[in-house]
Amino acid sequence: MPKPGRTSEPRPWNRLAARLFDYSIWGLVLALLLSALHNAGVVSDDTAFWVGHPLFAPILITLTWVPIEALLIAALQLTPGKWLFGIYLQFSISDAYARRDVRAQLRRALRRSFRVWWEGIACGFPLLTPILVAVAYEKIAQHGETDWDFAEDCLVTHSPPGVLNTITGVVGLAAMLWLYGVAWHEPMADSITAAKNAVVAWVPSPPSLLPRGFQGDVGKISAIAKGIGASLQGPEAPVAESANDVDTTALFAERQAPTRAFARGGPAHAAGRATGAAQPRSAALGPTSSSGIPNPGAAWDTRCRRRAIIRRRSTRSARPCNTIPRIKRSIRQSTRVSAASSPTS
What we know:
Layout: H1 12-39, H2 45-51, H3 57-76, H4 80-84, E1 87-91, H5 102-120, H6 129-143, H7 147-151, E2 154-158, H8 163-202, H9 212-233, H10 247-265, H11 267-275, H12 281-284, H13 296-317, H14 323-341
Antiparallel strand pairs: 1-2
């Protein structure tokens, strides 16, 4: 709850705009100083790059602003941004006996500024700053003051900023944010690309997710399946390359010859295997040559002749039988003879 006697109306957006204006002005001062040191050869190229990088520059800007803000508040009770937006600070408002000399005021202002840097903007880290700013906004909306104001007994008062001050503050803040965006666009894009490549390189590929031994088995199975598909397509089909295992080559060579013979043998070989006929390997593949190697062409001719014979036999067996019409004719003839020989009534 706010301390008694503090009736200043909270204006969080004015306070945020004033703080951003102060940080922007101080950042431009540091950028000019860094450029001068770099041109003089005091600062190397790598140091200048990392000091001005959009991930590290906000931390450096906000950290070095802490003592500058403390000195301005202890001496003038305001900063350039606070003056433009009509914001004033008063320490020890509820303690009439508190010391109000410059040293005491400087200690309070320094503690408050450091706590703002630590709790209010997450040390200037760009990814966390919006989160803590939203938390501070909720606290001001609910309780009327922030934690660092309550801890240092600080009363924040607001006065009408005026049209000229408001226009100057808004236009100046927009111009400085535009300058920062132009200066930080290229290094930020390079950092995002580098982070994306690092994540892609860090994520393991699908084969590497399997155990070491299982990877070899998968490679063998894939190579054998590709080789069988190529042999079924024809003798001219390209043969699959062996997997990343030495045993795959021997295993594939062992399976390649009978697979090609099966492809050349046609459907008759598959029909013979379906009927369960047990034949020797040389007989199933047909006659052999003088070197003892099966001749698939001769086996194909023999099977064609066998299919022709089986087709003729099945055609004969399918012809209709004339026995039943003959029986019917003999029955009718016997009926007529018996009717002719019987005496008339």
